[in-house]
Each structure stands twice: as C-alpha cells, then as structure tokens.
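As a representative case, we now present a protein record of this kind.
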Amino acid sequence: MKWNLIIVFAIGAFFFLLGFLVLLDQYTQIGVWIQWQDVFHHETFALAFFAVGVGIFIGSISQLVLRAFKQL
C-alpha cells in the first residue's frame, strides 16, 4: 500500500515537472515565462499538466482520508 502511494505521488510530481519544463522551454526560446499575447500555446499545455497533477494529488489525498476514516 505504501508503494502505491509513492507511485501515485511520483506521477503527480511528474506532471508538475512537465508543466515546468514547458514553461522553461518557452523561457529559453522566447525570454518570458508567460506570454499573454500568445496564451493559447505553451501556457495551455503547462496549465493542462498542472491541472492533471493537482487532480492526481487531490484524488490520492482523498483516498488517504477515506482509508483513515474507515480504520476509525
């Protein structure tokens, strides 16, 4: 059970890393982290990766809380 939790958190962290790497790529190529004039390009992918990461974290934390209440 502990390894499952570690794997799930690692997957969530992986999506956060992907989002950061997308923004880092934009920064190295263009020189800005977020370009508001072209917000539907790099930022869309970064936001999607961050949203998936947050969803994974929220889902795994809710499962942890549910298991804790079942043990009470």
Observations:
- The two ends are 18 Å apart (CA to CA).
